[in-house]
Protein: AAA+ ATPase domain-containing protein
Organism: Schinkia azotoformans LMG 9581
Amino acid sequence: MIYLKSFKLSPHTVKNPNAYPYNVFKSIAGEVFVFTNITVLYGNNGSGKSTLLNLIAKKLNITGAEEFTNIRENNYPLDYILACSFSLEEDESDGESDQIPDHSLYIKSEDILYEIKKIQQEEVLKEGYLYQQSKLGYTKEQIEKLKHSSQMYKQIEAMKFANEKYSNGETSIQIFDEYLVPNGLYLLDEPETSLSPTNQVQLAEEINKLARFFNCQFIIATHSPFMLGTLDAKIYNLDAPLLRTYRWTELENVRFFYNFFKERRNEFE
């Protein structure tokens, strides 16, 4: 299922070389990303893949979008977002949609790490649970009622049990199992965080199934060769000077792994 068809970056530039996020995308200003069921944004640190996910989430008002930290100092981020544009698929007869599902999510690697932390540290369980409910749209009044409810303490007990039973990676997989439900658009920022190679492949295979059989669309920022090699995805390389798609075997990070093991091949034989 395709919900978001394309996203166009702001075509404008500014004189200030440090103006964020103009400076991140100055070489591809005005370019258009065209999405499939699974689209990957590949790039090393500083390439802009996380910034792009957040821009999309902000523009589409998707749960999980973050405010830009320097927004009080200048209007660059707001001006940039306003100048971005997007298009949705409209032909429902082809199994497509003209709207973004309400339960769509932007899930960042730090969100997953926070979830793991609140499971592993009993003193922050209550804070973490209330924080998550506020992210899901609970009002202040509802949060106050929840503080003393049996519902909250049952959830905390379940988290304690999970802490005893599961590793970080297993907990991450459980979190994705909970959040990634059918009929949704999901923006995932480095979902491989805390996952072993085996679990990275498992998660990628699950994403493939959700996209193919359960009407989900994914836009994923990653540089994991295990995710890249498993996902049935269209890949944009944000490290390249011009915006175009790449095969996963062409990407620098993947080639690094390939050459690393190739040079040490005799140690495996």
User: Anything to note?
Assistant: The longest strand covers residues 4-8.
